[in-house]
## 1
Amino acid sequence: MDSSQWQWQETEKGSFLTCKLLADWQHGFFSNHFHQQSPEVLIKYLHPQASSYRVKQIHSNIVVSTNTINDHQVSNDNLVEADGIITEKSLQSVWCASADCTPVLIADSHTGKVAAIHSGWRGTSTQIVANAIALFQSQGSKLENLLFALGPAIDAKVYQVDKEVAIKVLNTIIPDAKNSDSEDLLTQGYEFPNQVIILDDEVNKVKLNVTQVINLQIQKQGISPDNIAIAPYCTYQNPEYFFSYRRTHEKNVQWSTIISC
């Protein structure tokens, strides 16, 4: 993680995080200082004229376009079910909510098109970010133009999961995983750099680094590591800035967004 890529922006309400890699787009990973403020309110800190798009997040691998939302979503009481949104026009802000899961903001440096993705272990195990990349490509994007900012999420050191969960996630990044048994997959997982999984003292448990798995999934699609930035903040360990479901078991969220050019 390169912490120099990330800066806190201050407002009268509180702080939000931005990433230098996405400097050409107005964007933000909002902190818990903005609790209970909706995207329609938060957008004023970035571009009051931008339209706002969000979905009902269901821990899926579904990515929809803003056109789909326009066609099917009557109001915020009737949200389209998905976990990612990709823009179709300029000045569209796309939003995702998180409280330990990884918020992923994607931008195309050539077209100005952007996406916001919510990826917990379920979305990661079903490769939602890879689905978003495929959608960009289907609309003419080239891999070398795609930029990725992976926002604050829970760190592996404090994210204990069942081995079964880790195996589902590891299946997406280990070559020839179908021909490996569960213990072999875990052994290979321990050997990955950046602590993708960590041994745990409890039986049938490991610690999982979802963000690093997403990072490896992106690279597996042919994206250069130089086009990926990872926030150096853990939601669980930084209560002054972030909500964490694992820490409090309360259903509070912080919002992340990016606006298309």
Note: The two ends are 27 Å apart (CA to CA).
## 2
Amino acid sequence: MASGPTTLASVGNTPVIELRQLVPGGCARVLVKLESHNPTGSMKDRMALAVVQGAAAAGRLARGGTLVEYTGGSTGTSLAFVCAALGYPATLVTSDAFSREKRDHMRALGATVVEIPSEGGRTTKELIQRMIDKAGELAAAPGTFYADQFNNPQAAAGYAPLARELWEQSGRRIDAFVQSVGTAQCIKGVAAVLRELDPQIRIAAVEPAESAVLSGGAAGAHKIEGVGPGFVPPMWTAAIADEIVQVSTAQAKEMARRLARDEALFAGTSTGANVFAALRLARQLGPGRTVATLACDSGLKYLSTDLYASASR
């Protein structure tokens, strides 16, 4: 039997680039860690691996047991990938609000996909709750493990290596870190490690302007996939971030398109939101400083959506 590395060994150790074309003169340098270089094209591979391995080690996911989760797509694809590599069946609850590529990718990796219909393809608080409710119902069956990404502490721990990689790749010079908030697990895990390395690092959280619940606003519909669930995530605390930046769907989409055209960085809407906020912070901080953020996933996940569909015509 083969005993060499599996595809799981390719999770992490993603490259970092410095933006050249989009950063005006007189600004801080902006570094982007390309999490799109993970096996499924998403930072969520890190979280999925930590959650599945943690559950298996604790005996909560038995051999032959089925993993159940609700997902905006990238988490589901990452969980399907890890489960396929380790031999676990996966049942994933998602919606037509999220790209067809993500749903097809989950199925290609062998997962059973349950789709909850949306209202006009928009992410809303009510849609996310229906997905969570359906996943909870499915997870009540014997022999299942409910990953529950909003509440699972292993998820945040999965991002600790990302923070250490980014610190070293930056030359140990980061003045601010910017990240959009979905479950809040990524920003929580990364911020905790970066503040251990340098307590002065400024952490900026990003949320959809249309659903600015972290800022005390009302929940609303938006199309920045994977972030802004319409409620304050259980893992979120005000202490995680020094500031919250609101970015609209239109701003996030336009920045994602500009990244593709001007920096050859092909990514999704959450990355567009991250970079929009990072550039704002870079203007505030000025020369000689460093702002770091993430390319959360690949633009290949969005080719059928209105983010890039017009570009292919």
Note: The two ends are 48 Å apart (CA to CA).
## 3
Amino acid sequence: MRNDKHSAISLRKQGKSYNEISKILGTPKSTLSLWLKNVSMSPKVRKKFLDAVKERQSKSITEFNKKQGEYARKKAQKIQQDAAEMVNALSKKDLLLVGSALYWAEGFKKTRWILAFTNSDPLMIKLIMKFFREVCEVTEEKIRGNVQIHPNVTPKQAISYWSKITKIPQCQFLKCYTRLSPSSKQKRPYNTLPYGTLRISIYDSKITNTVKGWIQGISEKI
């Protein structure tokens, strides 16, 4: 026991923690606390000891945060997947309501003779095209595409991409245009929109007014 005590004191002076000494000697920490309560470290050893404690604490916090982050991510994924499974296939009536609400939020509404919808999200573009074709029953020859691109994007690449997304023939796309304000240059990282932003235009006053009527109908039911 006496040899263990001397060894414990020596290890403590070297900057070992109670946990480390207990593992080395097999001595309970309660015993070590009695043996070592008056044992002091040199300033150099104490600094090294405290630095090691801080490093362990930092690693422990990092590991804890990593586990918590992973738990939160998996929980969020499950919630999202459960919610996604609540949505059935969209009926034509569903599509009318969803498409009208989407156009109400994002569409151009200042005239009575043109429908125009601008966005860079391919899924949103697919949804509005489904709405235009299946609910509004727009004929293909009335649809035009117009892409706004950044200087780093080639027009051919952008038109090819959006043509595949929308199923609009490339010949019905207008000439791409590049427009980037000084403020956007400072805010947007390079290549944020790799295929630019698509504007879909439909020149038909009857359909335009019909969509506005659906929006009005929704607003009156709120």
Note: The chain has two domains: 2-81, 92-220.
